[in-house]
Design brief:
By secondary structure, the chain is an alpha+beta fold. It is built from 2 helices and 4 strands, in the order E-H-E-E-H-E. The chain has one domain: Alpha-Beta Plaits (2-Layer Sandwich). The chain has helices at residues 18-28, 59-67; strands at residues 3-12, 33-40, 43-53, 71-81. Strands 2-3-1-4 form a 4-stranded antiparallel beta sheet, covered by helices on one side.
Length: 82
Amino acid sequence: MGKVATVFKVYAEDIAQTDSIKAEILKVLKPTGIQVDDIGFGIKVIKVMFVHEDQDGSTGYEEGLRKIKGVRDVEVEDETLI
């Protein structure tokens, strides 16, 4: 099997929590990449990328992101074989 790159969009309950959520994601889940994007009107989204084996699936990462305090919503933005 191959490797898969999965990018999640993580939305905070409060914009002021964005930096603390990003720090917690880096500490707990150790993603391959992470960035904060402004999507307009002061709203920010944290984009988190994980690279994993195809057979492992990405649901564990999604569940881990949802457990972080202050996270309102998580959605898969992109998933592709690499």
